[in-house]
Amino acid sequence: MIADASGHQRIVITGIGLTAPNGNSLREYREALLAGRSGVREYNIRYVGDTLAGVCEYDTSRYQKRKEVRRGTRAGSIGIYCANEAVRDAGLEWENVDPTRVGIYVGLTEHGNVETENEVYALKGYDYDTSFWSHHHNPRTVANNPAGEISLNLGITGPHYTIGAACAAGNAGVIQGAQMLQLGECDVALAGGVSESIRTFGIFASFKSQGALAEHADPTQASRPFDVDRNGIVVAEGGCLYVLERYADAAARGARIYGELIGHAMNSDASDFVLPNPERQAECIELALRRARLNPSDIDVVSTHATGTSSGDAQECQALRRVFGNSPETMINNTKSFIGHAMGAAGVLELSGNLPAFDDGVCHPTINVEQLDPECQLDGLVLNEARQRKSCQVILNNSFGMLGTNSVVIIKKV
User: Fold this and answer.
1) Looking only at Cα atoms, what is the longest distance across the chain?
2) What are the b/e assignments for 102-116, b being 16+ CB within 10 Å?
3) Class of residue 272 by CB neighbours under 10 A (exposed 0-12, middle 13-18, buried 19+)
4) 242 and 102 share a domain?
5) Residue 353: closest CA among 89, 13, 28
């Protein structure tokens, strides 16, 4: 059995399934990132009205019947699409996989708001007579719903659950899947995150009331982390799930390996409901580096969390300067500038957009930075145009969330 120096079994990514506002496969998604193509568009949501959002357009009928789509949730449908795509991409002979040994670990920011809002709105037309309330409401709104819908669709009888970690949830799903493999709780893990957030007016209304909802005459330029004129978050939906396996199992079947998880960390700010704490963020990054037995200068690409808010971007850059201030060769980028903030799916979508750099050595840029905010100045920022590296061996992915939850994963080329 292959193990690292600490005795832990090595965990690798062998399949990727995703849907993003600018692509429904890793190939499409990566092409859009390198071409500078945004997936943000005009969007109208009940009560809030005209706004902007990152909207996915995947084929909902590829793995589900119409009746199943109607009965389930948008998050569940996204999860089913991503899970099936990941299984196919991994080249698993699904009929020969023991369904009791497959685990499903899906990160979520929130779930259930969409269905409850829709039911209350519909009930208004019946003078709030609850006899018209949908009997599908409870299974739609339980927190494990997206993972459970994947289980039903693929016939998986191993463990399934969701991980609530605000906007750090995508990374948390990957970490949980890896740990379950190392513990021997499963042999294949479907892990990552999903988001249906653009379907709930509550998220838009809350960000708007905070003055944190992005506005711009050109939707494709609304999401602009690090720019001096950034004015908030573009809400997005999406999903990304990985097939994770132990290295020994993947090597035995000759699987293609996208990368190996060599370090991860999660911690808490314990300081504010929404304002980030750069000291705790830096500590989370440093802990992941120690666990990976790496120095900051060993990291080739840092994928940032930056959402386009005034304070959040500056605080993360402060943390990055503390850790990578003496690592001028480390390149730093951001993916939300292309797709907006996909909440529970954000971290894993952002990581996926960078993984092809292991093969082509290209670091995709942060777009829409017309004037860099001095508070966001970092030596390694890649702005507006992609940059070629001699090689890319290690990627570090930041993902932070409300109530001060921080997550970092480190992936190495195999």
Assistant:
1) 66
2) bbbbbbbbbbbbbbe
3) exposed
4) yes
5) 28
Q: Are residues 172 and 220 in the same domain?
A: yes
- Any idea what the CATH number is for the domain that residue 82 is in? 3.40.47.10
How does pLDDT run across 57-100, given as a tens digit for each residue? 999 999 999 999 999 999 999 999 999 999 999 999 999 999 99
Let me know if residue 89 belongs to a domain.
yes
Spatial separation of the C-alpha atoms in residues 8 and 29, rounded to whole Å? 32
What's the pLDDT at 1? 33
| Residue 156 binned pLDDT confidence (cut-offs 50, 70, 90) | very high
pLDDT at 110 over 80: yes
211-224 as b/e, with b when 16 or more CB fall inside 10 Å? ebbbebeebbbbbb
Of 201, 231, 252, the last residue of a domain is 252
Distance CA 56, CA 293 (A): 38
Alpha carbon separation from 214 to 29, 51, 218, 402 (Å, rounded)? 23, 9, 11, 18
Mean predicted lDDT score pLDDT of the chain: 97
Residue 323 belongs to domain spanning: 263-412
Torsion sign (Cα): 216, 220, 226, 232:
positive
Tokens at residue 137, please?
């409401």
Q: Are residues 207 and 246 in the same domain?
A: yes
Mean pLDDT of 188-217: 97
Whether the predicted model's global pTM rises above the 0.85 cut = yes
Calpha distance 90→258 (Å, rounded): 10
Q: What is the pLDDT of residues 229-252, one digit of tens each?
A: 999 999 999 999 999 999 999 999
Please check whether residues 192 and 287 belong to one and the same domain.
Answer: no
Q: Is 5 part of a structural domain of the chain? A: no
- Three-state SS at 270: coil
Torsion angles phi and psi, residue 240, rounded to 5: -155, 125
CA distance 236 to 343: 7
**For 23, which DSSP code?**
B
Domain count along the chain: 2
Does residue 287 carry a pLDDT above 70? yes
For the stretch 387-402, pLDDT in tens is: 999 999 999 999 999 9
* Whether residue 246 is found in the same domain as residue 269: no
Claim to verify: residue 199 and residue 314 sit in the same structural domain: no
Looking at the structure, tell me whether residues 118 and 155 fall in a common domain.
Answer: yes
In this structure, the answer to whether residues 201 and 275 fall within a common structural domain is: no
* Length of the chain in terms of residues written: 414
**351 within 8 A of 323, measured Cβ to Cβ:** no
